[in-house]
Design brief:
mainly beta; 5-stranded antiparallel sheet; 5-stranded mixed sheet; about 0% helix; about 40% strand; rod-shaped
């Protein structure tokens, strides 16, 4: 992987491509290749020599494990020595690269919201058009130039099967970071439906009414080392879930009983249901709500139309529906 003009490798037995040019030693295996790291000969393809054919690219693998670090012409020097049939030896060095095989620590999910009102925490309703997930990153400067991939799985059963949610999002190279402190979090937004092979939230395989999903994330550093492999045990557990509820309450099942309550010390009238008189200062309306568990922690907003105009305005503020207040 190349980030900011620098090559990053996450395999400590890297494969390298070499082209040896020779005008005379052109037969198969005429050339002999030896590789040294910091002056010490290392094995290539499980041997300390490798036979090359001139004038064509060949891929060789250093099978002695290398240590993480910068490999360049001045630090951790890799040198190739090529000898032809006449005993002439040529040398070369591969392009500079950084070897990084250490996986980053796990991220965490700090916030999940939706887009398009009404927005309700931990719910996906019929109005929402995108999900926004804030991913907290560990303290690791190698994450700059890496990626964040959201994952989603239905939260039932013990064997959760995660699938990609949206596409990988790049972690900015200029992400502010102080050694020992976490990186700045990255917020990933995924639309309900995404064109092509990318999976939007409503395109998840198990998406359905009343299903609850666990949202997780896999991060990779700029050498493409992931924090987790594709199994549930390595994913973040205990993050905030999100539940699908797109069915509105049943129409026509709300009954009303209106009570008019006068002031504490009425002077000129008495309270009477369905009437607002000169001493009235409060309206209390009792609603008969259907048995619908999704109403819990929902709300009731009264609306009023004076003169049967068909134009309703909000009356008062929304009231939260509590336990035993429906059904």
């Amino acid at each position: 992987n190349e980030v900011g003009g620098v090559k990053y490798v996450n395999d400590n037995t890297p494969a390298l491509t070499i082209v040896a040019t020779d005008a005379k030693s052109t037969d198969t295996d005429d050339l002999i290749l030896i590789c040294k790291v910091n002056g010490d000969t290392v094995d290539i393809a499980d041997n300390n020599i490798f036979q090359l054919t001139a004038n064509g690219p060949e891929t060789i693998t250093i099978t002695d494990e290398l240590s993480d670090g910068l490999y360049s012409g001045s630090e951790n020097i890799i040198s190739f020595y090529v000898r032809d049939t006449s005993g002439n030896i040529g040398t070369t060095n591969p392009v500079e690269f950084i070897l990084d095989t250490e996986a980053p620590a796990d991220p965490s999910i700090s916030n999940i919201t939706t887009s398009t009102d009404p927005v309700v925490a931990n719910y996906w309703n019929g109005y929402n058009t995108a999900i926004n997930v804030t991913v907290n990153l560990p303290s690791d400067g190698s994450l700059r130039g890496g990626t964040v991939q959201l994952k989603a799985a239905i939260s039932t059963g013990s064997d959760l099967v995660f699938e990609d949610l949206g596409s990988p999002v790049n972690i900015p190279l200029n992400n502010a970071w102080v050694l020992g402190d976490p990186m700045n979090p990255v917020t990933v937004t995924v639309d309900s439906v995404v064109n092509g092979d990318i999976t939007g939230f409503e395109e998840l395989a198990d998406f359905d009414e009343n299903k609850t999903f666990k949202i997780s994330a896999v991060i990779t550093d700029r050498a493409t080392n992931p924090n987790a492999e594709n199994n549930f045990g390595n994913y973040i557990q205990g993050q905030m879930p999100i539940k699908v509820d797109q069915d509105p309450p049943v129409v026509g099942t709300v009954g009303t009983q209106v009570g008019i309550v006068s002031s504490d010390a009425p002077m000129y009238s008495t309270s009477k249901n369905y009437y607002w008189n000169m001493d009235t200062d409060t309206m209390k309306i009792t609603l008969d709500l259907p048995l619908d568990q999704s109403l819990l922690n929902g709300s009731v907003q009264l609306r009023a139309d004076i003169g049967n105009t068909g134009f309703f305005v909000d009356l008062g503020s929304p009231a939260v529906i509590g336990v035993h207040e429906f059904g």
